[in-house]
Amino acid sequence: MRIVATIEARMTSSRLPGKPLLTAAGAPMLEHLVRRLKAVPSIDAIVLATTVNAADAPLVELAGRLGISVFRGDEQDVMQRVIDAADSAGADVVVEITGDCPIIDPELIEQTIRMFKAHHADYVSNAHVRSYPDGMDTQVFTLDTLKRSAQMTDDPLDHEHVTLHIRNHPEMFTQLHLVAPPETHWPELGLTLDERSDYELLKKIIEHFDAHNPLFSCLDAVRFLRQFPEFAEINKDVARKGNT
To answer: Tens of pLDDT along 121-170?
Structure first.
C-alpha cells in the first residue's frame, strides 16, 4: 500500500500572491512544509500538485531542488488535479495537504495515517471537526475513494474543495475524525498561510524554533503562543475560508 502525500500549491492566491515562496529562517514556506512531510515515517513519496500556469514554474523548480515529484493540472478543478498527481506517483493512499500549512506537525500526520490503517475507514481527518489550530489539517483516504467521489459529482464547489463531497456524504463514505487533546485544542488559532498577517505570525514562530527545534510540534507552537499571547493577536482578525 503506497502512501503518497499531495501538496496543493500555486502562486496566484488572490489574498497573498506568491505565498509558497515567502521565506522564514532563510527558506521558502513550501520548503518548510516538505521538510515536515519527509519526517513522517509512513509517507512513501511526496508530489506537488500545482497548476499549468506559467506563474507556477518557480514552484516546479523548487520541487526539483527538494527532490519531490510534480504534477501540473487545472487550477480550478483541484479534485482532478489531486487525483492525477496521486496517480502520477503511483499512490494507493493519499495524504492530502495544502501548501497553506507550512508548520504542520509530522506526528499528527503520522497519527492520522495510523488511524486510517487501523480502522479501514474511507476517510480520516483531523480537520473536519475543528479542534486543532487551523494549519494542522491532514486528510487521508484511498485514491479509489477520491475517484469514486469525483464520479458522483459535477458540482464545481466539490471539485474546488477536494473532499467536500466525501465529507458531506457520511452515509456513503465511512469517516473518522480525530479531535485534539486539551493541550492542543485551539480551533480559533490560525497557523495557516492565507494573508500577510498569517505570514508575519508564522515567520515569528519558525524563526523562534529554527535553530534548536526546526521540526517543532503543534504543542510546541501552542505553548509558545500561550507564553506570548500578543503574537496570537497578529492574525486574529483574518477571516478563514472553508477547508480544502
So the answer is: 999 999 999 999 999 999 999 999 999 999 999 999 999 999 999 999 99
Domain annotation for the chain: domains and CATH numbers: 3-232 (3.90.550.10)
Mean pLDDT for each 10-residue chunk of the chain (244 residues)? Answer: 97 95 98 98 98 98 98 97 98 98 98 96 96 98 98 97 97 97 97 97 98 97 97 94 50
Neighbours of 200 (CB within 10 A): 13
Distance CA 4, CA 92 (A): 8
Amino acid at 199: Y
User: Cβ distance 70 to 86 under 8 Å?
Assistant: no
Instruction: Assess contact for 34 and 46: CB atoms under 8 A.
Output: yes
CA 13 to centroid of chain Cα atoms: 15
Phi-psi region of 199 (alpha: psi -120 to 50; beta: other; left: phi over 0): alpha
The grid coordinates of residue 7 equal 501538496
Q: For residues 117 and 109, is the Cβ–Cβ distance under 8 A?
A: no
